[in-house]
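Help wanted!
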Amino acid sequence: MKLINRNCKTRDFHQAKWNEPIIFELHQPGEKGVEPPPVHEEIALAVGDGVSTVPESMQRKSKPALPEIGQAKVLRHYLRLSQETLGSDFNVEIGQGTCTMKYIPKVNEMLIRNPKMMDLHPLQPEGTVQGMLEIYYNLDLCMREISGMDYFSFQPSGGTQALFAMASIVRKYHEQRGEGTQRSEIITTIFSHPSQAATAAVKGYKIITLHPDENGFPDIEKLKAAVSERTAGFVVANPEDTGIFNPKIKEFTKIVHDAGGICYYDQANANGLLGITRAKEAGFDMCFFNLHKTFAAPHMCGGPATGALGVTEALKEYLPVPIVEYKDDKYALKYDLEHSIGKVRAFHGVAQTVLRSYAWIRSLGPAGLKEVAKIAVLNNNYMYHRVLNIKGAGAPYVKGHRLEQVRYSWEQLTKETGITTEDVQLRMTDFGLHYWTSHHPYIVKQPFTLEPTESYSKQDLDEYIAALEQISKEAYENPDIIKNAPHNSTIHKMDEQDFLDNPKKWCITWRSYLKKAKEHQSV
Amino acid sequence: MSQKVHPYIPNMVPEVQEEMLKVIGANTVDELYSCIPDEIKLKEEMNIPKALTEWELRRHIENSLNQNTGANEYVNFLGAGCWQHFIPAVCDEINQRSEFLTAYAGEPYEDHGRYQALFEYQSLLAELVDMDVVNVPTFDWGQAAATSVRMAGRITGRKKILLAKSVAPERSKIIVNYGSPELEYEFVDFDLKSGLMDLEDLKAKLNHDVAAVYFENPSYLGFIESQGSEISKLLKEKKALMIVGVDPISLGVLAPPSHYGADIVCGDLQPLGMHMNYSGGQAGFIAAHDDETFINEYPSRLFGIVPTVKEGEYGFGDVAYERTSFAHREKGKESVGTQTALWGITAGVYLALMGPNGIKDVGQTIMQNSQYAVQEINKLQGVKGSLFESPFFKEFIVDFTQTGKTIEEINQGLLECKIFGGKDLSIEYPELGQSALFCVTEIHTKEDIDYLAASLKKVLEK
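Answered by r_m:
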């Protein structure tokens, strides 16, 4: 046998490319994808066509212009689109910092497909859903240990919804105390997630944003200057998107409490902290965890998901209803919370995510959860040291260790080669690797944010680093290969901005595209 | 090796850790936590049960789940915001694909398929509602309605929202909490005989400070609101917007709200291919016309189609991204984040499978089955179904007041017959007496409905 020399650090990758038509182009009149259950003959005899009871003005006159496509064609189309999607199961997904893309255990997916889970109606009598309620309650107990909070609601179905629920609780709390109008400001930090500021603003608050000191720490003097009798609350992530932990957090929460505000903690990503430090000891009144991040539920292209919301005893009565209680050997839904904000989402939130995260916690146990945090931090610091050695890469602010992620910068690379972080992003696609830059704030120049989590092995990290190294080398030696990237993607470079930002050209649906393309042709 | 390595944490291997620590220049992993002050470090182990292996975990969770009784085991007549419908196998096949299940925030060049699938979802639903713009889905119907009214507030520059009193009370809670303190809400009464909106009450409350009226069709209480055009006319006179919440599975047979003047249409995607999942299948949509003023007020992501440098290739991206909170924090429109994208893709698969005929057939079968159920239930002495005179779609109110029994008693009796009876309305709408909201869909057979009628008879005669 000949020795096959596969001695390469990066991958010779090619994304699937099917050049799929838009589904409407698969239309063939007469074809059929599925047959819904038909009406029983005797029912049709008894009641007629059913539709003529409706006033004519309320009947649909012509059928919706949906395509007619045979089942195999529909399946094939969507399977091909799935192949043109780089899910985290397929790549070393450490490029989506802040989002904790970790391994999604398959056993949990198997468990949620149990018909005794899938086919439950949310209004079934409590006696017929004791198992489901038990899982909700047990997850609540685990979350209390992880956070130090006293009660959890799993109704918010995403991080933004949990943040919104917390801002709603802040408002209700001050209203109950007769200070609703006076307390009109919420304080946050610039490196906390944009949703913190956005959701507080939806709830009618003026936002005060603290900028960091020269080392990247939230500035305590600025906080002291910001609090007043107008302070309703303080919301922050710790560590923030930079991976820098604010060691004075307890002083921060005290300053806000002394001014009469509520402190709520964005723990969407808590991956470096499990079993290490908690919301309670840092002085927070509320916190939330994204179960689809730290707690290993899948991201599902962007939901459905859960933002598990925890509060101290003092705020229990403000939670959205219902919450699950265990009383007299039975699990029950409790609706009568005196100051409840009402509801943020229908029924009980996303039960599958609750089950998945409970299963994940049970598969790790207390020691395993702490290992998750420790290895996530180990992996991150290993990457941090390796990335800082790549020509053109840097990371602003404090030297020393970071927790679970780092916001890096290619500022030097851009200065020296003209290659930007967006260029790097497109080139990373050629290695089968996802790479994200940053959301607001755009303070760190030429940013990219890596978060390796506990899920990836040293080999995986080395592969990702090797791709970054190669791109850096190309930037200095052969920048054209980057500028013309991606080379191995599903599609070529798009003619984006004008078609996405110009109302005359944007097309949010196929029917809109057909109209605008026709108009364009006739001009 | 003394320490056990967990299957999900490869770098627990001690030799690997040592190698990595050497690169970092640290002796232990604990050193990396030197930034956290001791006083806030957790000293003791968390009180969480010890780890289970995969097999033990399966036993543990399945033991819990076995205490549940699913709607697949009993005959289920509960609806009220989450409905049991037929789900084609291809829907599950697609949404269980690893690629879609585990994708998240990939760029259009890595996740072309995700972008296309969501663009197609927007396009397919657009045909159903007969409008040109549909968003990447939001959390649920309640959130979709809550955002729709906030959009209306910004578009009109007005603060007051009128909500039909027949809007699901649980949904109203979401809407009101989401809009306050910015918006004010007032309820418009319904007629106790027909369920229809009381137009006199509407006229009395419809002033120039009203941004929008929101009602649902078919309504939460089941009936079809047939006064859409009249309501729209009244609103146009005051330059207020009409927002209609809709059950999309009705739109093969019922006129979409855009045909009777709706400016914004919203609703829940769960009927279009999602299992009930104890409410985990909900997902909200918001549709509008291709009007810049409306599009710029959407907080959601909107995927658009674009050409690439290669002729014949489709590309996709975010339309008007600068609207969003991702781009502008508190200055963006409301907020955006992880919502329910996979259910959007699934609803797209469902509509592609059903096609124009399937969606019409399913709507018709639902109406026939539910009318048959009413016919049979109405034969029972002292029972009035449907309470309202207006035609209904898949849900209807059954009034048991004259039987002298409470809904609680009746539902307990039905449960003993392995039936989940309708939702008890006596708390939400005391004015309707001892009434329950029953839901009948295409999945109910004639036998199921006959069994319900026979069981009710038995329970009432007890």
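OP: Thanks! One thing I noticed: Residues 89-351 of chain B form a domain with the Aspartate Aminotransferase; domain 2 fold (CATH 3.40.640.10).
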